Automatic annotation (TrEMBL):
The lineage of its organism: Eukaryota, Metazoa, Chordata, Craniata, Vertebrata. Residues 5-193 form the DH domain. SMART domains: PH, RhoGEF. Residues 222-314 form the PH domain. Its main location: cytoplasm. This is FGD2 protein. It comes from Smutsornis africanus (Double-banded courser).
Amino acid sequence: MQEPEEKKIALELLETEQAYVSRLHLLDQVFYTELMKEAKNGKTVPEEVVKMIFSNISSIYQFHAKFFLPELQKRMEDWSHNPRIGDVIQKLAPFLKMYGEYIKNFDKAVELITFWSEKSPPFQELIADIQKRKVCANLTLQHHMLEPVQRIPRYELLLKDYVRKLPPESPDREDAEKALEMIFMVAKHSNAAIAEMERLQNLWAVYQRLGLEDDIVDPSNELLKEGPIQKISTCNNSTSEKYLFLFNNMLLYCVPKVIQVGAEFQVHLRIDVDGMKVQELNDTQFPHTFLVSGKQRTLELQARSDEEMNDWIK
């Protein structure tokens, strides 16, 4: 007699979980433990660096090895009497929020590995030595570290499939659907963590271009648009090249620096968005011009095209 489809998927979940736990064991008990030991002996890199690379991998490993995998194993051994996994996955779901921290840290971790491998040959040698072992299957540390990032989407796919294949009268239907909903929320939570990380990285890059003026650096700011613009000088009918950064709360009117040491731009003027008015000017001499008037002052600006002007005004 053929196994029911939903059981096959539940078994696949168990098998991939076993493989995943051994991958986590390798990350936590082998890479992290051995790199930490050498760092404590002062031979490779500062201990802090090793901690930063591995983030909260130990908690993730303990959770899967001591709780989730044993619960799944118990359930699959007992499948003939109790064909269900929905309730076990519901217990798992809230703990998956732990992944937010690991995922947010992932890019930084990979950068640190690259940086310290160049800076500290003993660190690089130790990693290379562990990577040569059979348990690593010819894959790099970075490759193994990607596994937790991909695990939640994998649960989501397997569970979706499981719910689809469940017979309508299955005792697990209600639990499994609820579990899927919970996993979906967690996946969204980790995607939001990644998006937030990218936003902050981009914002930081903008602040560096502006020379890190401390009254401008604010993590809650959002950059809406940036680009070159011509400033019209009414007294001598000429234009000069400037650069604008429009944030959700302020417009920075900048001058490109000739000698780019550190910053790319110098902030000449800040205009608060609060109380700002913008209007198009039909100037025959200077096409695509618009007026920005704020509390601090008024600027007459010329874009490169009508389309660009409308973009700024919007």
